[in-house]
Amino acid sequence: MLAKRIIPCLDIKDGRTVKGVNFVDLRDAGDPVELAEIYSKEGADELVFLDISATEQKRKTLADLVFRVAEKVNIPFTVGGGISSVEDVDVLLQNGADKVSINSSAVKNPQLINDLVAKFGSQCIVVAIDAKQIDGEWIVHLVGGKVPTDRKLFEWAKEVEDRGAGEILFTSMDNDGTKDGFANEALAKLSTELNIPIIASGGAGNKQHFTDTFVNGKADAALAASVFHFKEIGIQELKEELKENGIPVRI
Predict the structure, then answer these.
(1) N or C: which end of the chain has fewer CB within 10 A?
(2) Where in the chain are the domains?
(3) pTM
(4) Which of 45, 51, 88, 130 is catalytic?
(5) Residue 130 known to be catalytic
(6) What secondary structure letter does DSSP report for 10?
(7) Tell me: the pLDDT tens digits for 174-233?
(8) Helix, strand or coil for residue 37?
């Protein structure tokens, strides 16, 4: 079995790392370059850097910040926010990103997934999906969770896979920032129906939640923010507990 991955997420707004609850009420969580370096040294398997205001403000991801983060880390580094073209991805990869994450732009122009895969390869393209339950149905949302769409989570995820994306980063907006655990039922369905890796996001509050999402949610990786930023959980101690629980991880 492939090792499960632990991925700290740096949500960036105006050059600072921030964290909210249910995608709102953001508070400062520190300097992204410093945090990235700490996580790299502490044993994180990957990093995700999301410029959460890039799409909303109609501007490009901060390529210079990507460069400064990439200089400090020696683990795979995924960047997202405001990416809408092959040229955007080219710039980010040249500045040190290993993978890119697209979200709103993929829903608005699904062909973009195909184009990016053709140019850069599946292993480089992550599609992020933000969804919340409305009347019992998981509905995809855009622009940092502000705009509901007519897309349903599982149908969209299957299309994303069919178009060649290498991974899906699924964030449950209902669970985000609540620290009540990941949306394991939805994650398990995604993992069962698809053949590409699924990254769980939204809801981590304690070490048991990570074990639960790997066992019950069948996730391939677990992403979290505030529990790492505010030192509620140490990455090394988390991995040691996961190993004790029979979860394959890189120590």
Answers:
(1) N
(2) 5-244
(3) 0.91
(4) 130
(5) yes
(6) E
(7) 998 889 999 999 999 999 999 999 999 999 999 999 999 999 999 999 999 889 978 899
(8) helix
